[in-house]
């Protein structure tokens, strides 16, 4: 993972993830089903488990590239990236505004970034 690099908020439907830092410093976390945030700065050798179906993220907070391995609880797992789900589509701006509380200009900007239409 490059300096300042990140893995955006995402989930793996039906699978848990075991995340092991091999090199560098990575900030990682997840949001529980009760909306409690668990976040930790991981160093070489540290491990974090992201429970099945929960939204989680990782980003490099170190001064050098980082390396980590991820293993999943099932052989074939999908990734569901939240930003893509919300903004890389043709869902109308007014519906997104009502369901996310984002300002219409923010939604249009994000749809432009993620390739969605409005």
TrEMBL record:
The keyword Mitochondrion does not apply. Belongs to the germin family. Keywords: Apoplast, Disulfide bond, Glycoprotein, Manganese, Metal-binding, Secreted, Signal. PANTHER family: GERMIN-LIKE PROTEIN SUBFAMILY 3 MEMBER 3. PROSITE patterns: GERMIN. It is found in: Secreted, Extracellular space, Apoplast. Pfam families: Cupin_1 (PF00190). Its main location: secreted. This is Germin-like protein. It comes from the Eukaryota. SMART domains: Cupin_1 (SM00835). Residues 1-108 form the Cupin type-1 domain.
